[in-house]
Amino acid sequence: MEIGCGAHAIATVPLAHMVGKCGRVVAIDIKRWTFFEEIIKSAGLQRRVIPIMFDATQLPFKYQCFDIGLIVHGIRSMRSEDNIVRIIKKLLRVSSQIFIAESLPIAKNKAQEAHIEMYNLREEIFEALIGEKDDIHYFPLEKLVKMVKKAGGKIIDAKMIDVILPHHLAFIPREYIEKIKDKGKRKGLLRRWENAYRKLQKYGEEHPLVGIIKAVRKN
């Protein structure tokens, strides 16, 4: 089971390849489905993927029925630490083991710094626009580990990796900020956006380090 599959099925497609013809990926998301069906069909994997639109804090499964539960770059969309812990707790209940991959606020070069600086605007922009957080700031690996433990998980492995890939998720159009009604917030965010955008133009945009966590439920 994959929590937070997202509109582009970035992890869902390789997962569906990995499970083989007899396996299934149950893909769960609450609202981001824009291109999902089209991508899965174009990959010829629709028979291996079961998409479910559902709130992951209220998973409908009653027992441990999945070989593995995954959150691949979905932690940042869960809006609050309490939500994250609740979802991980549910995932541990229905899966034999869990795997989490998430970007970290750690940069080893200027391109990674540029990504993080632009990405860190998203939480404040969405909060100013819609009144709630979305795409919250990246957590350090130590914090992610603590949340897994708080949810009742036993850590099997936790490490950082440098994926050495371009990463354009951070960019958010200037037009979003221009729609913010609060003049003071709009002015401050526009100034920070301009600084971040100049760095993207100068250094490019690279994926920051990624935290990898494997865990099982404590007995």
Description:
- Strand 4, helix 3 and strand 5 form a beta-alpha-beta unit.
- This protein has one domain: Rossmann fold.
- The longest helix is centred in the middle third of the chain and has 21 residues.
- It is built from 7 helices and 7 strands, in the order βαβαββαβααβααβ.
- Helix 4 runs antiparallel to helix 7.
- It is of the alpha/beta class and 219 residues long.
- It has a 4-stranded mixed sheet with strand order 4-5-7-6.
- The mean pLDDT is 94.
- It is globular.
Helix content: 25-40%
Separation of the first and last Cα atoms: 21 Å
Number of strands: 7
Q: What's the alpha carbon Rg, rounded to whole Å?
A: 18 Å
- Low-confidence regions: none
Strand order of the largest sheet: 4-5-7-6
SS element count, helices: 7
The third-level CATH topology is Rossmann fold
Proper CATH architecture: 3-Layer(aba) Sandwich
Brief description of this entry?
The chain is α/β, with parallel strands linked by helices and 219 residues long. The chain contains 7 helices and 7 strands; from the N terminus they run E-H-E-H-E-E-H-E-H-H-E-H-H-E. Helix 3 (81-94) links the parallel strand 4 (69-72) and strand 5.
